[in-house]
Amino acid sequence: MYTREQTKTIRIGNTPVGGGNPVTIESMTNTDTRNAAGTIRQIEALTEAGCEIVRVAVPDAAAAESFREIKKAAKIPVIADIHFDYRMALAAIEAGADMIRINPGNIAGENRVRQVADAAKAAGIPIRVGVNGGSLEKELFEKHGGLTAEALCESLAKHVAMLERCGFTDMLLTIKASDVPLTLAAHKILCEKYDYPLHIGITEAGTPYRGTIKSAVGIGALLAMGVGDTIRVSLTGDPVAEIRVCKEILQAMGLRRFGTNIVSCPTCGRCEVDLLEMAEKVEKFCDELGAEITVAVMGCVVNGPGEAREADFGIACGKGSGVVFRKGEIVERLPSEQLAEGLIAVIKQIR
Ligand code: SF4
């Protein structure tokens, strides 16, 4: 197993982040923030799916005004995402933001950054300092001969130092790139240098299929390094789809449990049943049940009995029939076509 990096604890609204607290799931709305009703609806859908912190872009004064209404309606902490105009940061803080995300490098002048830091401190909220591969300063790009881990870290260090000079240390840090090896290399440098909590993800990961894989590899590798206090999976499309991926990543890493862990084999030439149909039927039932159990659906006697016995519940198929397991014990032998229903009936007994 791996040891999580020791980071400071901050609070985003009422959610503790860092310091060994559970890794939280974040997403970002993609509605027009000026459309408060539409944004509130999307936050409700995200919350229902299991999102724990949401970020909302605040690009102009109308969006900042709408943000007030959004924040009042939201049942999870809301981060205001600010670029370029420090006045939007001040307006979002005044409107009740639980955190603001800024990139001090694109808010011209330390004096303006100081005003934002002072306002955040007075409101008692943290600032997320985020550096992104797509917006690296030109001089760092040239100095390092391109987009490198060192360039990203130098950019972030500059911004962190600016806030620290303002006497502000209630920070969450982010370095994101769309390239997985680059992201990993940057975090190796980053976690040697700071003990601020980290938000992690692979930015602009892509469309749902490729983006899911890229995010799982990148975020999984970072979590295995012990790095990461909040995560976001960035997929092109409806952000609600991001939440299930986040949950599966955290569950696969053994960091959180969100309902049932399904173990099912890929099948091979030994399998004599339609295992996909059986696994999908069992998975659908378990998703609706939402119980934190492990269920195995296995195609034959080679690995089936072993996996089914290790799980809380399981089936191991054979020639024309198979067995149902509960907590390591055989409960019954059934014809193949009754196995999925038989397993579901046994799981139902836990209610
Ligand atoms: Fe093949 Fe049996 Fe292994 Fe499934 S459990 S992959 S059917 S050997």
Strand content: 15-25%
CATH architecture designation of the largest domain: Alpha-Beta Barrel
Shape: elongated
Average pLDDT, rounded to a whole number, is 94
Helix/strand-derived category reads alpha/beta
**Amino- and carboxy-terminal Cα gap:** 33 Å
Low-confidence stretches: none
**CATH fold-level name of the largest domain:** TIM Barrel
CATH class of the largest domain: Alpha Beta
Proportion of residues in helical segments: 40-55%
Which strand order does the major sheet show? Answer: 8-7-6-5-4-3-10-9
Structure commentary:
With 351 residues, the protein is of the alpha/beta class. The chain has two domains: 4-252, TIM Barrel; 261-348, Sulfite Reductase Hemoprotein, domain 1, CATH 3.30.413. 42% of the residues lie in helices and 19% in strands. The protein is built from twelve helices and 15 strands. The strands form three sheets. The chain has an eight-stranded parallel β-sheet with strand order 8-7-6-5-4-3-10-9. The protein has a five-stranded mixed β-sheet with strand order 11-12-13-14-15, sandwiched between helices. Strands 1-2 form a two-stranded antiparallel sheet. Strand 12, helix 11 and strand 13 form a beta-alpha-beta unit. Helix 3 (86-94) runs parallel beside helix 4 (110-123). The longest helix has 17 residues, at 149-165. 45% of the residues are buried. The mean pLDDT is 94. Residues 265-268, 270-271, 298-300, 302-304 line the site of iron/sulfur cluster.
